[in-house]
Amino acid sequence: MPSPELKPCPFCGGEAEISATGDYDEIVVSVRCTECTARVRLADDSRDRDFDKLKAEAVAAWNRRAADVKKKRNTKGC
To answer: Given pLDDT bands bounded at 50, 70 and 90, which one contains residue 1?
Structure first.
Protein backbone atom coordinates (compact mmCIF):
# COMPACT_ATOMS: atom_id res chain seq x y z
CA MET A 1 0.00 0.00 0.00
CA PRO A 2 1.55 3.34 -1.04
CA SER A 3 2.03 6.07 1.53
CA PRO A 4 -0.69 8.71 1.51
CA GLU A 5 0.16 12.15 0.17
CA LEU A 6 0.56 14.61 3.03
CA LYS A 7 0.45 18.36 2.57
CA PRO A 8 3.22 20.44 4.15
CA CYS A 9 2.66 21.74 7.68
CA PRO A 10 0.09 24.56 7.64
CA PHE A 11 2.08 26.47 10.26
CA CYS A 12 5.73 26.24 9.19
CA GLY A 13 5.69 24.50 5.80
CA GLY A 14 7.70 21.56 7.12
CA GLU A 15 7.42 17.99 5.91
CA ALA A 16 4.81 15.77 7.54
CA GLU A 17 5.09 12.12 8.54
CA ILE A 18 2.58 9.54 9.65
CA SER A 19 2.99 7.00 12.42
CA ALA A 20 0.81 4.40 14.07
CA THR A 21 0.92 2.51 17.31
CA GLY A 22 -1.43 0.03 18.77
CA ASP A 23 -2.12 -2.87 21.01
CA TYR A 24 -5.07 -4.96 22.01
CA ASP A 25 -6.86 -2.01 23.63
CA GLU A 26 -6.32 0.89 21.26
CA ILE A 27 -4.80 2.04 17.98
CA VAL A 28 -3.40 5.54 17.51
CA VAL A 29 -2.55 7.22 14.21
CA SER A 30 -0.61 10.48 14.21
CA VAL A 31 0.41 12.85 11.45
CA ARG A 32 3.03 15.31 12.62
CA CYS A 33 5.33 17.98 11.28
CA THR A 34 9.02 17.06 11.36
CA GLU A 35 9.96 20.72 11.97
CA CYS A 36 7.52 22.02 14.62
CA THR A 37 5.14 20.48 17.15
CA ALA A 38 1.99 20.53 14.99
CA ARG A 39 0.17 17.22 14.81
CA VAL A 40 -3.12 15.42 14.33
CA ARG A 41 -3.71 12.42 16.56
CA LEU A 42 -6.65 10.07 16.27
CA ALA A 43 -7.29 7.09 18.52
CA ASP A 44 -9.83 4.29 18.39
CA ASP A 45 -10.53 1.93 21.25
CA SER A 46 -13.71 0.39 19.88
CA ARG A 47 -13.99 -3.34 19.36
CA ASP A 48 -14.57 -3.01 15.62
CA ARG A 49 -11.72 -0.60 14.95
CA ASP A 50 -10.50 -0.22 11.38
CA PHE A 51 -6.86 0.84 11.03
CA ASP A 52 -7.11 1.85 7.36
CA LYS A 53 -10.18 4.01 8.04
CA LEU A 54 -8.49 5.70 11.01
CA LYS A 55 -5.36 6.35 8.95
CA ALA A 56 -7.45 7.87 6.13
CA GLU A 57 -9.27 10.11 8.63
CA ALA A 58 -5.98 11.32 10.14
CA VAL A 59 -4.56 12.13 6.71
CA ALA A 60 -7.77 13.95 5.71
CA ALA A 61 -7.69 15.97 8.93
CA TRP A 62 -4.02 16.91 8.40
CA ASN A 63 -4.58 17.86 4.77
CA ARG A 64 -7.69 19.97 5.47
CA ARG A 65 -7.08 23.70 5.19
CA ALA A 66 -9.29 26.65 6.13
CA ALA A 67 -9.29 27.82 2.50
CA ASP A 68 -10.67 24.44 1.41
CA VAL A 69 -13.55 24.74 3.87
CA LYS A 70 -14.29 28.32 2.81
CA LYS A 71 -14.26 27.36 -0.88
CA LYS A 72 -16.65 24.47 -0.19
CA ARG A 73 -19.07 26.78 1.64
CA ASN A 74 -19.03 29.31 -1.20
CA THR A 75 -20.13 26.68 -3.72
CA LYS A 76 -23.28 26.08 -1.67
CA GLY A 77 -24.39 29.69 -2.04
CA CYS A 78 -23.33 30.92 1.40
So the answer is: low
Question: Beta partners for 10?
Answer: none
Decide if 26 contacts 32 (C-beta within 8 A).
no
The Cβ-side half-sphere exposure at 9, using a 13 Å CA radius, reads 17
List pLDDT tens digits, range 31-56: 999 999 999 999 999 888 888 999 99
Which spans in 30-78 are helix H? 51-63, 66-74
Full-model pTM: 0.79
> Which residues partner with 21 through β-bridges?
28
Specify whether the CB–CB gap between 51 and 20 falls below 8 A: yes
